Amino acid sequence: MSAPLQLALVVAMGENGAIGRDNALLWKLRADMRRFRALTMGHPLIMGRNTWDSIGRPLPDRDTIVLSRNGAFAPEGVLVAHDLAGALELAGTCAARRGVDSAMVVGGAQIYAATLPGAARVHLTLVQDRPEADAFFPGGPEGAWRDNFVETWREAHPAGAEDERPFVFIDLARRQH
């Protein structure tokens, strides 16, 4: 019997909880893109339709599972689920096939809100900025959700030539009760 599927959220947010605007990223952070690739490689990705639209293509060496209520939505190279249970079932099948025990939830706000209660880990990039946005992580970086997690790792990065804002990588694991 295989281990149950674990969910890990991968999110970059501003100090005000901002995660996106007009279906686009808010910052250019090369180090965060490298971390995203390293964390998600070889894992199934669960995302909402707007996040899919912003990426626009399946990412290499990862199974892309898109949650969409649109029954006609069927882009090539993508698995489509019409509800969270269906997405989790697809992710479990993909994870087992790949020999991994987790799926990565990569946005957007509604998908984070739906999966945060069952997430085992959160890989947070906290950007030192408070941009205008139309998409926010539920509760922001210091919301009540943090009470259920313990910080396991932190690494600060200054702004630089490839990273337009300073930021901190923070890994969190769900508290064991």
From TrEMBL:
It comes from the Bacteria. PROSITE patterns: DHFR_2. Pfam families: DHFR_1. It catalyses: (6S)-5,6,7,8-tetrahydrofolate + NADP(+) = 7,8-dihydrofolate + NADPH + H(+). Pathway: Cofactor biosynthesis; tetrahydrofolate biosynthesis; 5,6,7,8-tetrahydrofolate from 7,8-dihydrofolate: step 1/1. Signal peptide: none annotated. Residues 6-174 form the DHFR domain. GO terms for molecular function: dihydrofolate reductase activity. Keywords: NADP, One-carbon metabolism, Oxidoreductase. It is an enzyme of class 1 (oxidoreductase). Its EC number is 1.5.1.3. Belongs to the dihydrofolate reductase family. Key enzyme in folate metabolism. Catalyzes an essential reaction for de novo glycine and purine synthesis, and for DNA precursor synthesis. This is Dihydrofolate reductase. It comes from Camelimonas fluminis.
